[in-house]
Amino acid sequence: INENKLWISDGGIHVHAYEVYACVFVWVCVRLECMVFMQRAVSSVLGLHWICYVTLGVLMALVSFFMDLAVSKLTRAHTWLYEGLHGHVLLQYLCWTPVSFLPLCCGCGFSFNICPSSAGSGIPEVRCILSGAELPDYLTVSNLFAKVVGLTCVLASGTTVFLGKVGPFVHLSTMMGAYLQRIPVINANKAKSPVGMLVVAAAVGVASCFSAPVSGVLFSVEVMGSHYAVRDYLPCFLAAACGALTSHLLTIFSREKGEQTVQALFKTICLASRTHSTLITWALRFTRTNKLLIRILANQKVLYSGIVVFFLASVTFPLSAGNFMAAKLSMKQLLFTLLDQKQWQAVSQNASAPEDNPEALWQMWCPPGTSVFLTLGLFLLLKLWLLVLSCTLPVPAGYFMPAFIYGAAIGRFLGELLAYILPHGMSRHLNPGGYTLAGAAAFSGAVTHTLSPALLALELTGQRTHAVPVLLATLIANMLTRARNRPSFYDNIAIVKKLPHPPSLIRTCPRLSTVQLGQVLRPLDAVVAREEGLMGVQQLLESTSETVFAVVDSHGEINCEIAYAIMGVLRETHLFVTDKGRLSGIITWTESMAPVK
C-alpha cells in the first residue's frame, strides 16, 4: 500500500484505498446479514433453546469420554506397574495400596479445598434445587471444576473403593445446563423455566454415562419425581439422544449375542435384592449419623479418607482376599464378566484360555482350586461393608453403578446355584447371565426406588428376551422395598444431610393426610366453600375486610391435602407438620402457586 493506493504488481492494476474500504464494508455487511438470516431461520424452526439442549448433550458426552480415557490410562499404568513386580509380594503390596489411596486422597483434598460442596452424589441436592430451595455453591464454576477432578481421582482408584460416577455426573450435567441457561439469547425466552433445563440435564447425565437415552429420560422422570413437567419430556429425549449418539461415536462397542433363554425363579432375586438393599440403607444411615465419624469427618477429612482407602486397598490386595473377589477387574470388566452366559462352575475345571484374552476375564472369578460359589459369596459379603465404608468418604462419588454391579453378583450367585442344582434345567439349560441381568436391575431399582434400571439393563446388553422377567423382578423388588413407606437411598441422604427438602411426607407418614391444620396453623378467619353461591360470597365480602380467601371443600375440618391452598392464603412459605409433638416434616410452598382470590 503506497499512500492511498493499493498496487498489485503482477497485473499492473492499482485501486484507490477508499474503494478497498468500500469493498470490505460491503463484504462485512453481507456476512452479517447472512448470519442474521441464518439465526432467524434456525430460531424460527427450532428455537435457540433446542440448540442449547443439543449442545448440552454433546458437551457432557465429551466430558464423559475424556474422563473415562484419563481413568483408563491411569488404571492401565497401575496394572502395568503391578504386573511388572511379579514375584515380589512386598513390592506388589506397596504398589497396590499407595497407588489406590493416593489418587483418592488427592481428590479428597482437592474437593475439600476448592469446594467442599462437591463431595457426595449430588442428586439429593439437585432435587432440593428443583423444589425451589437455594443451595449456595452447588452450581458454581468451582464446584464444577472440583467435581470433575475429584471424580476422576476417585474412579482412578479402581474397584478398591467401589464407587461409580452416575450421581456426580448428573450433578455435573445440571451445572453445565445451568450455565448454558445463563446465555443471554437463551435466557431471553421467558417461556422456558430454568428448572426445565436442570431436569433435561439430569437425563443427559445418565445417557452420557451408559449411552442409553431412554433409560436416562426414565431415570430423570423417576428420580426428580413431582418436579418433572410434561413439557420437558421432548427436550429430555433430544438432549439424551444427542449425548448417547456422541458417546457411541467416541467409543467402540463389541457385542456378541448368544443363545438367550427366559428362566423361572426370578422372584428369589427380588427377595435377595430387597434384603440387601434394606441392609445397605440401614448401614449408610448408621455410619452417617455416628457421632465419632461425624467428628472425624468435620476435622480430618483427608486423613480419614487415607486411612479408609488404605484399609480397603489392603483388603482387596490381589494376593490376599482380593484374589477371591476379582479385585484386578475394573467396574466395566466386573459387569462384563458377570453377564457372561457360560456356567462357570461347569467349565471352570476345563478352562485353559489365556488371561490376555478378553473372553477369559471370567477366570478371575475362578482361581485354581477355588469354587465359584466361594468367590461370589466372599464378594457379596465383603463388598457390602466395603461399599458402606466407601459411601462415608467425603469425595465426589456415584452409588448407582456399585449397586448395579452388586445386584448383578447376587443374580450370578443364584443363577450358578440353580444351574448346579438343576444341571439340565427345568425345560432348557439354565443361563446364569439372565439371572445376573435381573439381579442388577432389581437391586439397583430397589435401592433407588426406580424402574429405569430394568430398561437400562436391556439397553446395555441388548437382550430383549429377558425383558419380561427383568421387569417383573424390578417391580417386585420395588414393591417390597416401598413397603411400610421406607425412603429410598437418595431420600436417606437428604434426611442425613438435613437438606431443606425432605421426602414425600404422605409416603413417609401415612397419617399426615388426617392431621388437622389447626394443630400447626392459626384458625382461618374467613373461608369459602367450593359449592358456595353468589349470595354467600357477597355476604362474606360484606362481613370482612380480607381480600384473599381460602377455597375449601366444606366448612368442616381441613386436612393437609389442601395445605398448599392454605399456605397460599396465609402467604406462608413453609408448613411445619408435627405428630405427637415431634416434627414429621416440612411442606414448602413454591412461588408458582398463586393464592386463590
UniProtKB/TrEMBL annotation:
Keyword annotations of the record: CBS domain, Membrane, Repeat, Transmembrane, Transmembrane helix
GO molecular function: voltage-gated chloride channel activity
Membrane-spanning ranges: 20-42, 48-71, 195-221, 233-253, 265-284, 304-326, 372-397
Location relative to the cell: Membrane
Name of the protein in its database record: Chloride channel protein
GO cellular component assignments: plasma membrane
Pfam families: Voltage_CLC
Signal peptide extent: none
UniProt topology in membrane: Multi-pass membrane protein
Domain of life: Eukaryota
